[in-house]
Amino acid sequence: MSVYQWIIMALWVQMLWSCTPHPVYRSRDSAPARTNVPARDAPRPAGSRLAQDYPDSLLPDPRMQPRPEERANAHPISPADLDTTRAYQIGVASYYGSDFHGKPTASGAIYNMYRLTAAHRVLPLGTRVRVTNLTNGYWVDVKVNDRGPFIPGRVLDLSYAAALEVDMVEAGLARVMIEIIDTPD
Fold first, then answer.
1. Exposure b/e, 45-58, CB count within 10 A at least 16 = b
2. Which residues of 59-88 are buried (b: 16+ CB within 10 A; e: fewer)?
3. Of these four, 23, 52, 68, 92, which has the most CB atoms within 10 Å of its CB?
């Protein structure tokens, strides 16, 4: 290569290097001051309250989580008393959350991880089903608005909110029973 070509290549590399974004590291002392500009409204669970919704004296303690037996939306049934004769399908369910939040579903609706929805491979979109966790007896009614799961051995993908209702978020997977409540017209 000639000297001229080396100079052109060096200028080209310098130009690319200067266009590349570089991380900015700040110490806590040099952090910019907070302004009073409200943050963009982020999706949040129905009925949830943020700290800005409370006076300072009434802020809930974030460490206090309701015990499963105190949850208002939990519908426990003793696992020994479960009747599986009306089951459409029994199998393993998983849940999906923030990775798909705000993205379109197979029905055309935008996925909201805080709504009670589910994904099923073959049930008609719009079908309402009751999903019962066979381990603890908790159940929840959800609407099928997406297709999936596409992992072998799984029969249903629940939204994050539905997974909370049947108490399977920590485990990630649960053996469930699916009962059809209503089909679309």
1. eeeeeeeeeeeeee
2. eeeeeeeeeeeeeeebeeeeeeeeeeeebe
3. 92
Identify the CATH homologous superfamily for domain 78-182.
RlpA-like domain (2.40.40.10)
pTM to 2 decimals? 0.59
Give φ, ψ of 94 to 5 degrees.
-125, 180
> Could you give the CA distance from residue 47 to residue 152 in angstroms, rounded to a whole number?
35
- Looking up tokens 């943020």, which residue turns up? 50
pLDDT score, position 19: 55
Q: How many whole angstroms separate alpha carbon 66 and alpha carbon 68?
A: 6
Task: Using 70 as the pLDDT threshold, list the residues of the chain that sit under it.
Answer: 15-76
> Which residue in 99, 105, 102, 126 sits closest to 180, CA to CA?
126
SS3 5: helix
